Amino acid sequence: MFQSIVVGTDGSPGAERAVDAAVELAGMGGATLHVVCAYKVLASSPLALGGDVPLMTAAAPEADAASRSLAEEVSTRVAHRAQAEGISTQTHLVAGDPGDALIRVAEDVGGDLIVVGNRGMSGARRFVLGSVPNKVSHHCPSSLLIIDTSGARTDTRK
């Protein structure tokens, strides 16, 4: 079936639903699971480099480290969960836009399936530029599975 499955997560309940599906698919087919966590980088952003925001510039490296650390915690937690089920797993921490990160990792590892949640895909929000599932659906280098995460906000499991 699939040999290499790429899934993105930020640790949110919606992302956990997408992770659940990716873990299940990887387990059924013996695929390698690639867990992608994107994080924001402020130190190189135009806002942080502007002369009008010296406090932002001074705090940016600390904020970047905290953002990366959180991404690492989330990806490690997901990887341990998948590995406990016998699934070969790799984590990928990528600075920048989550949609771009998923696409880049899928291209780099030869992913044949990307799994994302549909958060932001309902109603008028599906037309908003920058939506992760929207961006991935338009630029996906492989098959794409969009998981319904609409019930995740009331889901109490973790």
| CATH-defined superfamily | HUPs
Number of strands: 5
Mean pLDDT: 83
Q: Please give the CATH architecture.
A: 3-Layer(aba) Sandwich
> Can you tell me the number of structural domains?
1
CATH fold label? Rossmann fold
Largest sheet: 5 strands, parallel
Radius of gyration: 16 Å
Global structural class: alpha/beta
If helices are DSSP runs of H or I spanning 4 or more residues, what is the number of helices?
5
Tell me the distance between the termini: 28 Å
Question: Widest sheet: strand order?
Answer: 3-2-1-4-5
Proportion of strand residues: 15-25%
Report on this structure.
The chain has 158 residues and is of the alpha/beta class. It has a single domain, classed as Rossmann fold. It has five helices and five strands; from the N terminus they run E-H-E-H-H-E-H-E-H-E. A five-stranded parallel sheet has the order 3-2-1-4-5, sandwiched between helices. The two termini are 28 Å apart.
Provide a short characterization of the protein structure.
The protein is α/β, with parallel strands linked by helices and 158 residues long. It is built from five helices and five strands.
Pick out its properties.
Rossmann fold; 158 residues; five-stranded parallel β-sheet; alpha/beta; 5 helices
Topology, pairings included?
Layout: E1 4-8, H1 13-29, E2 32-39, H2 46-49, H3 54-84, E3 89-95, H4 98-109, E4 113-117, H5 132-139, E5 143-147
Parallel strand pairs: 1-2, 1-4, 2-3, 4-5
